[in-house]
Amino acid sequence: MRIEISSNGIKLTAVPDESELSKARVFYVYERFIKDTDQVFYIGKGKGDRFKQLDRRNFYFLKVKEHFDCDVRIVKEGLSEYEASVLEEEWFSQREKEGHILTNIAVPNGVGANDLPEKYEYMLPLL
Fold first, then answer.
1. 37, 42, 84, 126: which one has the fewest Cβ atoms less than 10 Å from its Cβ?
2. Contact present, 89 and 16 (Cβ < 8 Å)
3. How does pLDDT run across 53-73, given as a tens digit for each residue?
4. Which of 32, 59, 55, 64 is nearest to 45 (CA)?
5. What strand order describes the sheet that includes 70-79?
6. Which architecture does CATH list for 20-126?
7. Could you tell me the superkingdom of the organism this chain comes from (predicted)?
8. Positive or negative CA dihedral for 105, 109, 110, 115?
9. Residues 106-120, buried b or exposed e (16+ Cβ, 10 A)?
10. pLDDT tens track for 68-121
């Protein structure tokens, strides 16, 4: 986590400094969702076929994937690693504000499936 200060105010961010990240425009941001309800349950960034990989996913992610017909969509592609990191953080916050309950464990804003209370009702029968 680091603090960014700009003319728009002060922001706490998990995005590393741009100079530390790849400038190659091969990154994208994606989201996984439940087809029947369009409930988004995961936001990620990657390159290549990262969005297809299901290894190293957490318990909650795997339970949703196991019990629901799910799909993935690319939110935006052709990004540098920094741009993808910023968009991932922004998109995560936007989807949360819309009421989507995300299973991300390591999340940009510090909340997620570690806080598995009643807000995860749609997942409770799976646990």
1. 37
2. no
3. 887 788 888 889 889 999 999
4. 32
5. 40-47, 27-34, 70-79
6. 3-Layer(aba) Sandwich (3.40)
7. Bacteria
8. negative
9. ebbeeebbeeeeeeb
10. 999 999 999 999 999 999 999 999 989 989 988 888 876 544 444 455 455 556
